[in-house]
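G., the chain you wanted modeled:
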Amino acid sequence: MEIKRDRYLKQLIESRKNGFIKVVTGIRRCGKSYLLNVLFYHYLLDSGVTDDHIIRIDL
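Predicted structure as tokens:
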């Protein structure tokens, strides 16, 4: 079962080109990594950003 997290994804999308670094915080296992590594990543690919222009670091 996938939780969409539309509200947080919309906030990331709206502030994408404002020139500031984005920091996503929250308690453990609340979906921060899923939001960035799956949902926002696929949004970037769908909007025309090539994969070699996206940096993903697995910590």
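The chain has a mean pLDDT of 92.

Shout if anything looks off.
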